[in-house]
Amino acid sequence: MKTLTITTNVEELHPSELSEEQKTLADHAVRATYRSYSPYSHFSVGAAVQLADGTIVSGSNQENVAFPSGLCAERTALFYANSRYPDQPVSRLCIAARDDKGRLTDSPISPCGSCRQALLETELRYKNPIEIVLVGANSSYIIHSIHDLLPLCFDSF
Questions:
Q1: Which among 40, 42, 78, 41 is positioned nearest to 59, based on CA atoms?
Q2: Whole-number Å distance between alpha carbons of 17 and 141
Q3: Which strand ranges, in their side-by-side order, compose the sheet holding 90-98?
Q4: 74 given a catalytic annotation
Q5: Which residue among 12, 17, 21, 74 is the active-site one?
Q6: How many Å apart are CA 19 and CA 25, to the nearest integer?
Q7: pTM
Q8: In this structure, are residues 106 and 92 in contact, taking their beta carbons and an 8 Å threshold?
Q9: CB under 8 Å to 38, separation ≥6 — which residues?
Q10: What are phi and psi of 114, to 5 degrees?
Protein backbone atom coordinates (compact mmCIF):
# COMPACT_ATOMS: atom_id res chain seq x y z
CA MET A 1 0.00 0.00 0.00
CA LYS A 2 1.11 3.52 -0.73
CA THR A 3 -0.17 6.70 0.90
CA LEU A 4 -0.60 9.73 -1.31
CA THR A 5 -0.41 13.24 0.07
CA ILE A 6 -2.57 15.80 -1.67
CA THR A 7 -1.74 19.47 -1.23
CA THR A 8 -4.20 22.26 -1.92
CA ASN A 9 -3.08 25.80 -2.62
CA VAL A 10 -5.30 28.47 -1.11
CA GLU A 11 -4.25 32.09 -0.62
CA GLU A 12 -5.67 33.73 2.50
CA LEU A 13 -5.88 37.50 2.66
CA HIS A 14 -7.85 40.27 4.27
CA PRO A 15 -10.80 41.42 2.13
CA SER A 16 -9.13 44.84 1.78
CA GLU A 17 -6.24 43.12 -0.05
CA LEU A 18 -8.42 41.91 -2.91
CA SER A 19 -7.74 43.40 -6.33
CA GLU A 20 -10.22 45.97 -7.65
CA GLU A 21 -11.75 43.35 -9.98
CA GLN A 22 -12.09 40.90 -7.08
CA LYS A 23 -13.65 43.60 -4.86
CA THR A 24 -16.16 44.47 -7.57
CA LEU A 25 -17.10 40.83 -7.96
CA ALA A 26 -17.33 40.45 -4.16
CA ASP A 27 -19.73 43.42 -4.04
CA HIS A 28 -21.95 41.67 -6.61
CA ALA A 29 -21.84 38.43 -4.60
CA VAL A 30 -22.73 40.21 -1.35
CA ARG A 31 -25.62 42.06 -3.05
CA ALA A 32 -26.86 38.73 -4.43
CA THR A 33 -27.19 37.39 -0.86
CA TYR A 34 -30.11 39.82 -0.43
CA ARG A 35 -31.96 38.07 -3.28
CA SER A 36 -31.62 34.67 -1.62
CA TYR A 37 -34.76 32.69 -0.90
CA SER A 38 -33.70 30.75 2.20
CA PRO A 39 -36.68 30.42 4.56
CA TYR A 40 -35.52 26.99 5.79
CA SER A 41 -31.77 27.36 6.38
CA HIS A 42 -31.81 31.12 7.05
CA PHE A 43 -28.40 31.13 5.38
CA SER A 44 -28.22 33.52 2.43
CA VAL A 45 -25.57 32.79 -0.19
CA GLY A 46 -24.68 34.93 -3.17
CA ALA A 47 -22.37 34.19 -6.06
CA ALA A 48 -21.07 36.34 -8.86
CA VAL A 49 -19.42 35.13 -12.05
CA GLN A 50 -17.11 37.22 -14.19
CA LEU A 51 -16.87 36.24 -17.83
CA ALA A 52 -13.82 36.66 -20.05
CA ASP A 53 -15.33 39.79 -21.63
CA GLY A 54 -15.87 41.38 -18.19
CA THR A 55 -19.62 40.68 -17.96
CA ILE A 56 -20.75 39.93 -14.40
CA VAL A 57 -23.66 37.62 -13.66
CA SER A 58 -24.89 36.89 -10.15
CA GLY A 59 -27.14 34.38 -8.45
CA SER A 60 -28.37 33.42 -5.01
CA ASN A 61 -29.44 30.24 -3.28
CA GLN A 62 -33.07 29.31 -3.84
CA GLU A 63 -34.55 26.85 -1.37
CA ASN A 64 -37.63 24.69 -1.67
CA VAL A 65 -39.56 22.75 0.94
CA ALA A 66 -39.28 19.72 -1.37
CA PHE A 67 -35.58 19.39 -0.63
CA PRO A 68 -33.36 18.98 -2.71
CA SER A 69 -35.35 20.90 -5.32
CA GLY A 70 -33.56 24.16 -4.49
CA LEU A 71 -30.36 25.36 -6.04
CA CYS A 72 -27.12 26.78 -4.67
CA ALA A 73 -26.01 30.32 -5.53
CA GLU A 74 -22.92 29.10 -7.37
CA ARG A 75 -24.84 26.89 -9.77
CA THR A 76 -27.57 29.50 -10.23
CA ALA A 77 -24.94 32.00 -11.41
CA LEU A 78 -22.88 29.49 -13.42
CA PHE A 79 -25.84 27.95 -15.23
CA TYR A 80 -27.28 31.36 -16.08
CA ALA A 81 -23.90 32.54 -17.40
CA ASN A 82 -23.40 29.35 -19.43
CA SER A 83 -26.89 29.53 -20.94
CA ARG A 84 -27.00 33.28 -21.55
CA TYR A 85 -23.38 33.72 -22.72
CA PRO A 86 -22.37 30.30 -24.10
CA ASP A 87 -19.38 31.67 -26.01
CA GLN A 88 -17.84 33.46 -23.03
CA PRO A 89 -15.58 31.47 -20.70
CA VAL A 90 -16.00 32.00 -16.98
CA SER A 91 -12.83 33.56 -15.60
CA ARG A 92 -13.74 34.15 -11.94
CA LEU A 93 -16.40 33.16 -9.40
CA CYS A 94 -16.95 34.85 -6.04
CA ILE A 95 -19.04 33.49 -3.15
CA ALA A 96 -20.33 35.34 -0.08
CA ALA A 97 -22.80 34.38 2.66
CA ARG A 98 -24.85 36.04 5.37
CA ASP A 99 -25.92 34.30 8.56
CA ASP A 100 -29.40 34.20 10.12
CA LYS A 101 -28.78 37.63 11.69
CA GLY A 102 -28.02 39.17 8.29
CA ARG A 103 -24.28 39.56 8.87
CA LEU A 104 -21.61 38.55 6.39
CA THR A 105 -20.00 35.39 7.71
CA ASP A 106 -16.67 36.04 9.47
CA SER A 107 -14.91 33.32 7.48
CA PRO A 108 -15.44 32.43 3.83
CA ILE A 109 -17.64 29.50 2.89
CA SER A 110 -16.69 27.04 0.17
CA PRO A 111 -18.81 25.42 -2.54
CA CYS A 112 -20.60 22.12 -1.90
CA GLY A 113 -19.67 18.98 -3.84
CA SER A 114 -22.34 19.50 -6.51
CA CYS A 115 -21.14 23.05 -7.11
CA ARG A 116 -17.53 21.89 -7.27
CA GLN A 117 -18.49 19.39 -9.96
CA ALA A 118 -20.37 22.11 -11.89
CA LEU A 119 -17.27 24.34 -11.66
CA LEU A 120 -15.13 21.48 -12.94
CA GLU A 121 -17.48 20.95 -15.90
CA THR A 122 -17.29 24.67 -16.69
CA GLU A 123 -13.48 24.64 -16.57
CA LEU A 124 -13.43 21.58 -18.85
CA ARG A 125 -16.03 23.08 -21.20
CA TYR A 126 -14.00 26.22 -21.82
CA LYS A 127 -10.54 24.74 -21.17
CA ASN A 128 -9.97 27.68 -18.85
CA PRO A 129 -9.19 27.67 -15.11
CA ILE A 130 -11.63 29.62 -12.97
CA GLU A 131 -10.32 31.74 -10.13
CA ILE A 132 -12.52 31.20 -7.07
CA VAL A 133 -12.80 34.04 -4.55
CA LEU A 134 -14.37 33.15 -1.21
CA VAL A 135 -15.23 36.23 0.83
CA GLY A 136 -15.84 36.58 4.55
CA ALA A 137 -15.95 39.66 6.79
CA ASN A 138 -12.52 38.94 8.30
CA SER A 139 -10.72 36.94 5.62
CA SER A 140 -10.90 35.91 2.00
CA TYR A 141 -9.53 32.92 0.12
CA ILE A 142 -8.28 32.83 -3.46
CA ILE A 143 -8.20 29.48 -5.26
CA HIS A 144 -6.79 29.44 -8.79
CA SER A 145 -8.68 26.42 -10.15
CA ILE A 146 -11.40 24.04 -9.04
CA HIS A 147 -8.73 21.32 -9.11
CA ASP A 148 -7.41 22.81 -5.85
CA LEU A 149 -10.81 22.19 -4.21
CA LEU A 150 -11.52 18.94 -6.02
CA PRO A 151 -8.12 17.26 -6.50
CA LEU A 152 -9.45 13.73 -7.16
CA CYS A 153 -12.21 14.94 -9.42
CA PHE A 154 -14.54 12.89 -11.55
CA ASP A 155 -13.54 13.70 -15.12
CA SER A 156 -15.10 11.51 -17.80
CA PHE A 157 -13.09 13.00 -20.65
A1: 78
A2: 11
A3: 11-13, 140-143, 131-135, 90-98, 44-51, 56-60
A4: yes
A5: 74
A6: 10
A7: 0.93
A8: no
A9: 44, 45, 61, 63
A10: -65, -40
